[in-house]
């Protein structure tokens, strides 16, 4: 049974704040990569491409964590909580909206063997 958690965290910066938000999110990468449970943690920005013209928030974190518990522990780190408090929750923050979702790769009713 896979215990991995996949997180997609999208951010909509306030007008003119795109570069500042991208840099602020990039600053979270080094310490997060030090977490043993972090498998993948990369912030990306949307680019124009004729083969992918969907709509999304312009800045997205792609994350893979070893387990739900370890993802939730990451979310409780002071650096992460401070980021959301300063940039998302504060009225003068640089982010207009954020959308953080987690996913599993397990199919419905997966009957993983118990070891």
TrEMBL record:
Residues 5-103 form the ABM domain. The keyword Plastid does not apply. SUPFAM superfamilies: Dimeric alpha+beta barrel. Keywords: Monooxygenase, Oxidoreductase. This is Antibiotic biosynthesis monooxygenase. One of its GO terms (molecular function) is monooxygenase activity. The keyword Ribosomal protein does not apply. The lineage of its organism: Bacteria, Pseudomonadati, Pseudomonadota, Gammaproteobacteria, Oceanospirillales. It holds the Pfam family ABM. InterPro entries: ABM_dom, Dimeric_a/b-barrel. It comes from the Bacteria.
């Amino acid at each position: 049974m896979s215990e991995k958690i996949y997180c997609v965290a999208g951010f909509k910066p306030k007008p003119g704040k795109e570069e500042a938000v991208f840099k602020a999110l990039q600053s979270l990468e080094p310490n997060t990569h030090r977490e043993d449970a972090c498998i993948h943690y990369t912030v990306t920005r949307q680019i124009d491409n004729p083969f992918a013209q969907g709509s999304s928030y312009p800045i997205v974190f792609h994350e893979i964590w070893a387990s739900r518990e370890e993802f939730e522990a990451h979310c409780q780190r002071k650096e992460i909580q401070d980021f959301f408090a300063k940039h998302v929750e504060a009225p003068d923050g640089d982010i207009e909206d954020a959308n953080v979702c987690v996913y599993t790769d397990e199919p419905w009713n997966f009957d993983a063997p118990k070891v």
